[in-house]
Design a protein that fits this description.
The chain has about 950 residues and is of the alpha/beta class. The protein folds into 5 domains: about 260 residues, 3-Layer(aba) Sandwich (Rossmann fold), CATH 3.40.50; about 35 residues, no CATH class; about 220 residues, no CATH class; about 220 residues, no CATH class; about 70 residues, Alpha-Beta Plaits (2-Layer Sandwich), CATH 3.30.70. It contains 31 helices and 23 strands. A hairpin with a 2-residue loop joins β21 and β22. α3 runs antiparallel to α9, α12 crosses α14 and α14 packs parallel to α18. The chain is elongated, with a radius of gyration of 47 Å. The N terminus is likely disordered.
């Protein structure tokens, strides 16, 4: 049965109890009696802003990191630009007088153009009318031409000895469904003689089949076959001329023309050709050389009425570094060659498709510019953005490690305000950081930022920082140490960047790699971030090179642009991870009482008071043999309150138990064994007990840090198993260990917790000032000193002040005076005395003096169970009904002292003995104080008495006696 409210009429009976439950439920739904949602949010926001002010230096260092990186990239860009401004990266020039390159040649006599440039310089020349070049086949160099080897044992291949004379033929392979058709067509591929007509140079060259072993370039403004100085081969079925040919120059280059025999070889199937090509390139090595085939042709089902051909070519000449265009391949001549052979087969030798020349498109004069931020920025900028993750994660883990989250929750902070403000707080920090990063890069002129559409950048960074924040919330649930979280986070940051830069990027650039695997890898947020930055870099690099814009919205529809899929993946992950993080926080966070399914129907319903009473009567006899009358009376009182609740009792504990499962073969540990306790309003209940008795475990259950194994407790009428959120609104806690933000001052702590208790304006200011003054934290600047600089005693006083601010109805104080000097302890006692007038306080302590001064009732807790309950005088009377008599004499008169004591009290008990000194317990009912004085005076006449004393029983004696009896009982059991 539950109840609450200081001004509510007392209801009795089952119907009244039901009515009270309904009222409590309605109040819970209306806020639980605590501060409103926005009041809590305002309190947390103000605390976070104040906390942020204390970390200005850290924030400046954080923001300086991307600034320094951008500056370094700008300096590196300046250096690269200076290097690219040198002649080797400009269009080539020569003096008019001798047509030779001369650095001292006056500008008026310089002639610049592609004809004076090497293959690199030609890329930057203005070429309004590109040169026409003869079409060439790609031929292997003489040492690499196909020969017979152990892996290629075909008898129609030439012997390896031809390599010594550089006379190996170039090999072409053929196959077809119709063998005779394939042979007839292949015979028409090459002319029997080399003929050149100087009046129609290009036309005559096109009639011959030319080839070169030079590697192709990325453009065709200068044909490498002509500019490289390597020989040019014309292909014939039989070479009868082996000397060099006299040939007119092309573009000022005198050509070295040689004959190369074309060897057409037949193979039975395309798979046989494929195997030979593969073995020849990868495993047909002789002295480190390959056995390369020029081309291979499969006529498939071609005949006189159908033309259907597959062509193999060596694609390894395509050089791709991931930036800019790839190398051109000399494939068109192979297509033209086989097409001409087919036409000649059909229409005679005079029929050809004339492939006269190849040429590039016209181009203006250009200058090489490398955007370093685009080339190197992808990896570095990934680290810049990922650096936010450890910042958010460590902040969340710090609150968890220091129990600050549960401390805020115990003082009334709900999950909704916490998530709203914490999320918004981290988002604001991340947004400011990213904004500064983009602004720095843009102001410094990095094309990575200035060329790409800012709206796309905004959307990308907005989605990612949100994803990063929810990932931090999710990951924080797996860490309990800030150091471990920090190290792990930074390893993840640098590891993600390196894996993305040296592995993931390779897969992205490899067009043959399955796209599905790319998308799967992008599910990892670090790779998604890298892919987005990589796309920005690609577009800014090409835009800077071509003088165009970077990425625009219409570019997202490009199938080769991965930005669209990255935005979709990150958006979906943001939503999924947000719900996962919130779910885990609600189910697994300290103080949570929610069912994993979030369904009330699946929660275990508390057993009614009547049912519990019946069950206990039938079977609950734990420790019945050692329960004293006062403990039994307290149990009966609790049972009566559960049946007929009143508004006077703020705390009612009903058979609470806490059992920690045994590990490594050890038995279970019973921390709390069936505790029944009631604490009315206006009472301070002191809980005494030796270390490990279970006092802190009891407090932890009451404040929501741990769940009871069985039983429950009602605080202000609300069940701690199901309504802790409502209990927190009216609860104050001074934990055993101080839970404070080291960078916040004492005043700021009290302002924050005061706002959580719904204090505002002048009421808040007054409450804070009074708390500081009452605990001597006001003068000397202590109130405005950061808590991390407080002494241990000052921290304890601040923790007590926090527990009392806002007028909570129930307060738990776990050893509040630990570490205080005597004067501060007296001052603290006065504060607690005044505070207990209108609230229930449960206090644990090891100081018997403190217990006597502060506590209206005491309970001694031993081995998890309550041994006795009562006020200090009652306990001393009940368990200490003796005087303690002490006398010191010479050793010779010890027997005389013992005889004297026996005459005073026959049932006296000697409890202490050293040579000459003895201590006895004298039952009060057997002796009077006057009798003791008379006996001592008589003894002094018979022997020398050095010292003697008579004292009443102290609370400490009671504590020791009860503890010994409890341990003795457990030992016997």
């Amino acid at each position: 049965m539950v109840w609450r409210g200081s001004n509510r009429a007392v209801y009795k009976g089952k119907n009244a109890a039901h009515h009270q439950q309904q009222q409590t439920k309605e109040e819970m739904e209306n806020g639980g009696g605590g501060a409103s949602f926005w009041t809590q949010a305002n309190a947390l926001l103000r605390k976070n802003v104040t906390f942020q002010k204390r970390n200005v230096r850290t924030n400046v260092r954080l923001i300086l990191f991307p600034l320094v990186l951008c500056v370094l990239l700008v300096l590196l860009q300046h250096y690269i630009d200076e290097q690219l401004d040198k002649p080797q990266f400009k269009c080539g020039c020569a003096c008019a007088n001798n047509r030779t390159e001369d650095a001292e040649c006056p500008d008026s006599q310089k002639l610049c153009g592609v004809q004076y440039s090497d293959s690199t310089q030609a890329l930057f020349c203005a070429i309004p009318k590109p040169f026409q070049w003869p079409p060439f086949l790609q031929l292997p160099a003489p040492p690499n031409r196909a020969v017979r080897t152990p892996s290629l044992p075909f008898s129609d291949l030439p012997d390896v000895s031809c390599r010594r004379t550089a006379s190996c033929p170039v090999t072409l392979l053929f196959t077809a469904d119709d063998h005779s058709f394939g042979l007839n067509v292949s015979e028409n591929m090459f002319m029997s003689a080399f003929n050149v007509d100087s009046s129609d140079l290009m036309g005559s060259l096109a009639m011959n089949v030319m080839g070169s072993e030079s590697s192709p370039e990325r453009s065709n403004f200068i044909e490498p076959a002509i500019s490289s100085g390597l020989p040019i081969y014309f292909l014939q079925n039989n070479c009868t001329q082996t000397s060099e040919f006299s040939f007119p120059s092309i573009a000022g280059k005198q050509l070295d023309i040689r004959c190369a025999q074309a060897l057409n070889l037949w193979r039975n199937s395309s798979s046989e050709i494929n195997s030979e090509l593969y073995k020849g390139y990868t495993r047909g090595n002789t002295e480190g050389r390959t056995n390369e085939i020029v081309s291979a042709f499969d006529f498939l089902n071609s005949n006189e009425n159908r033309y259907n051909v597959s062509i193999w070519y060596n694609s390894t000449y395509k050089r791709d570094n991931g930036f800019g265009p790839v190398s051109l391949l000399r494939i068109p001549r192979s297509v033209n060659l086989i097409s001409d052979a087919y036409l000649q087969f059909l229409l005679g030798p005079g029929t050809k498709i004339l492939f006269e020349f190849t040429k590039e498109m016209p181009k203006p004069k250009t200058q090489l510019r490398l955007e370093i931020a685009s080339l190197l920025g992808t990896l570095f900028f990934t680290w810049v953005v990922l650096q936010l993750f450890p910042v958010v994660l460590t902040s969340l883990v710090y609150e968890k490690q220091q129990n600050l989250r549960i401390m805020m929750k115990m003082h009334g902070l709900g999950d909704g305000p916490y998530w709203l403000i914490s999320y918004g707080y981290f988002f604001s920090i991340s947004a400011i950081y990213i904004l500064c990063f983009v602004i720095f890069g843009s102001l410094l002129g990095l094309k990575f930022f200035t060329l790409n559409d800012y709206s796309i950048q905004f959307v990308f960074y907005f989605i990612y920082i949100n994803l990063q924040i929810v990932l931090a919330f999710l990951t924080a649930s797996t860490f309990s140490s800030v150091k471990t979280a920090t190290v792990t986070a930074y390893i993840g940051v640098f590891g993600s960047g390196l894996l993305a830069g040296f592995l993931f990027q390779f897969f992205v650039q490899n067009t043959s790699f399955p796209r599905g695997w790319i998308i799967l890898m992008e599910l990892y947020p670090g790779f998604s971030l890298y892919r987005g930055l990589y796309e920005f870099a690609q577009f800014s690099f090409s835009g800077n090179s071509l003088g165009t814009n970077g990425m625009q919205w219409q570019d997202l529809s490009d199938s080769f642009n991965g930005m669209k899929e990255v935005l979709i993946i990150m958006s979906a992950e943001w939503i999924v991870v947000l719900f996962a993080a919130f779910y885990i926080d609600q189910v697994l966070s300290p103080g949570s009482r929610k069912n994993p399914l979030f369904l009330k129907g699946f929660q275990k319903k508390p057993t009614s008071s009547f049912q519990k009473h019946s069950i206990r009567r039938q079977g609950s006899k734990d420790f019945a043999q050692m329960e004293k009358a006062d403990v039994i009376k307290e149990k009966e009182k609790v049972e009566q309150l559960l049946v007929e609740p009143t508004i006077n009792h703020s705390i009612v504990c009903d058979n609470m138990k806490k059992v920690y499962p045994g590990r490594d073969g050890n038995p279970d540990k019973f921390a709390v064994r069936g505790l029944f306790l009631s604490v009315p309003q206006g009472e301070c209940f002191g809980m005494l007990g030796p270390n490990g008795a279970g006092k802190t475990s009891f407090i932890n259950m009451m404040i929501g840090l741990t769940k009871p194994t069985s039983g429950t407790a009602f605080v202000q009428g609300q069940d701690i198993r199901t309504h802790m959120d409502g209990i927190y609104a009216n609860m104050g806690v001074c934990p055993q260990h101080d839970l404070l933000w080291e960078s916040l001052t004492g005043r700021e702590h009290l302002l924050f917790y005061g706002r959580l208790k719904n204090l505002k304006g002048s009421d808040l200011t007054q409450a804070v000032e009074e708390s500081l003054k009452s605990l001597n934290l006001f003068h000397g600047g202590v109130a405005d000193k950061q808590a991390g600089k407080y002494s241990g005693g000052m921290k304890r006083k601040l923790s007590v002040a926090i527990s009392l601010i806002g007028d909570p109805k129930v307060v738990y104080m776990d050893e509040p005076s630990t570490g205080l000097d005597p004067a501060s302890r007296k001052s603290l006692w006065n504060v607690i005395k005044r505070a207990k007038q209108d609230r229930a306080i449960i206090l644990t302590t090891h100081s018997m003096e403190e217990a006597e001064v502060l506590c209206d009732r005491l309970g001694i807790f031993v081995n998890g169970s309550l041994q006795c309950v009562g006020n200090p005088k009652e306990l001393k009377a009940r368990y200490g009904g003796t005087y303690v008599f002490t006398m010191t004499t010479s050793s010779d008169h010890e027997k005389d002292v013992e005889n004297m004591v026996r005459q005073l009290a026959p049932n006296a008990n000697r409890i202490y003995h050293l040579p000459g000194t003895q201590k006895f317990e004298l039952p009060k009912e057997e002796v009077g104080i006057a009798d003791v004085f008379q006996a001592v005076e008589a003894a002094k006449r018979n022997f020398t008495v050095y010292a003697w004393g008579l004292v009443d029983t102290t609370l400490e004696d009671v504590f020791i006696k009860v503890a010994r009896e409890a341990h003795a009982f457990d030992t016997l059991s």
